[in-house]
Amino acid sequence: LTSLLVQFDQGKFIPGSFSATVGIGFTVIHFTPDASIWDTAGQERFRSVTHAYYRDAQALLLLYDITSKSSFDNTRAWLTEIHEYAQNDVVIMLLGNKSDMASARVIRREEGEKLAREYGVIFLETSAKTGLNVDEAFMTVGKELVRRSVQLPVEHRFHLHDVMPPEKEPSVCCSFR
Ligand SMILES: Nc1nc2c(ncn2[C@@H]2O[C@H](COP(=O)(O)OP(=O)(O)OP(=O)(O)O)[C@@H](O)[C@H]2O)c(=O)[nH]1
């Protein structure tokens, strides 16, 4: 994800490894409405750290590497867990990255599409190297967030009485003399 964020933010690919994200990295990307993107560690041993962050997330981008079967299997495990802990209306995007590496591909596009369908999430193949679908991925998330916030049924919108018992609600009336 780090390379994808750099491509989206700076429009370029910086080859070579970034140091593996330990815990949480942080990049702010301005959407309308503004949203922050947290680049969390993909590695299994950080899962408990990451859990605390995605629980309240509005959108999650889950990446696997199309040249790595284990990364694909790992995203399946993440999807199962996210299903359990994330908010119900969270926007989830599954991205098959490194699509420029056609000759090393081990995960077919259809397998990514199938996994996405299974969990009802949005799917795209991307390349942080060539920039393929990078803007589209972030824009799709942004648009979907806006669409969902507009369409949010009334019962899911914020109500004062959800957080305060009715007797403690401030009274609406006031008269001034
Ligand atoms: N060819 C190619 N290489 C890529 C692409 N995206 C990332 N890489 C390379 O893959 C390696 C890992 O990339 P990162 O962006 O650091 O991976 P990450 O998912 O952020 O990894 P963690 O921070 O450990 O979760 C680096 O060597 C990148 O240069 C891509 O789309 N194409």
TrEMBL record:
Keywords: GTP-binding, Lipoprotein, Nucleotide-binding. Gene3D superfamilies: P-loop containing nucleotide triphosphate hydrolases. Coiled coil: none annotated. InterPro entries: P-loop_NTPase (IPR027417), Small_GTP-bd (IPR005225), Small_GTPase (IPR001806). The keyword Lipoprotein applies. GO terms for molecular function: GTP binding; GTPase activity. PROSITE patterns: RAB, RAS, RHO. SUPFAM superfamilies: P-loop containing nucleoside triphosphate hydrolases. Belongs to the small GTPase superfamily. Rab family. This is RAB37, member RAS oncogene family.
